[in-house]
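for the writeup, i need someone to sanity check this before i put it in the appendix. the sequnce is what the collaborator sent (i think, or maybe the updated version? ugh). structure was predicted straight from it, no edits. if anything looks off just tell me and ill rerun, i have time this weekend
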Amino acid sequence: MQWVRNQRTSVSVGHDVPKGSVIVAGPSSSLTIPGIVVSQIVEAMAVSHPVIRINVDESHEFDSELFRAPSLAVALQNVDNARMKVHIAPNHSRLRGAFFAKHITPEVRSAVAFVWPGIDSSWVREFIETANLVGASTTVICASVPKSSPAKISDLAELIVDADLVLVGNDSDAMALSSEFGISGPIVETHSALSLGRPKQKSPVHEIMAFLPKDSTESLATLLAAFDAIPEAWVDCYRLEVVMRYAGVKVPEMVAASYHSEFVTLVGDDISSDDLERLVASSSALIIADPAFDSRAFLTAVDCGLPIVVLASAKLPGVGRGYVGALLADLSRPVSVYVALTHALRLADLQFPRPDEWDALIVRVLGKNDLSAEPDLFESSLHVQ
């Protein structure tokens, strides 16, 4: 099955910039969390503004967290092409300056750069300088992630010091940047959509919950085959709990006959809302087959910010738009499920934002709103002794 269109093939050849455009630059790969986040930001902006997306990618993205499992959010995207143009920035730094100058014109109202700790962001300095020259407002959006550090965040300060606004995900990143900027630096704020760090570390044992349709022996066979592919040397660190209503003895017999059966638990009873929330919150990842638009399990996992593997059959599910933590797997291919689960567990230390948080982020960036509450603000001058 092929769900995801390669974003690099969707490139505008024209260079006209509509008046009032928003220009967004950052990673583009739909196989990385940073690229998926940028896609979501662009989609949310394109609802109300003409958007120019500039893809700035390095040849290596080892710190991008996600490797080769397709994203559900990207597969479900529905961006009006009339409102969005896509351009690919040159890899050579000496060519990027002329490229930015060509596309960041006086018609641009706002220039937004997305950066991710661990990925080379040297391009962002020239991007901001070019936008400042044409009078556009400049915003840097920086994800706060578990593998980051104050030192990595501080290294960004020199590159983004000329921006008008810097948004990060947590207080420690905000304070680190503010202290580096000094009294004349940009405003630094925190925003929940950029806080991808999980409040507490997960257990070293991967607790995986899987929700399958009633009596669906086909989906159970696929799941068990994928789980059995886990090497024996690793499986002690895995626990699979299969939630599935069933009749008769075939389903329990299939579980008992699986190679890693001692690490699999079958639950055939209904689960209360309170128990569901508790079980999902303690899980490392969730697997769900063909979820309905009102799936309790899927929505609970989204509220918890968990990585989710969606086992899809002939068509895409009716749930998951805007949730960047969901991966797609082919319900008929165990290897697809195994790959998606492996990547989901690599993301288990991240907590993903709810879809509505992207809208709130866009409201803050574009400034046309009536904020109901003051943001968490860290003015540079307040943190300089």
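The first strand starts at residue 21 and ends at 26. The chain has two domains: 7-196+354-383, 206-346.
thx in advance!!
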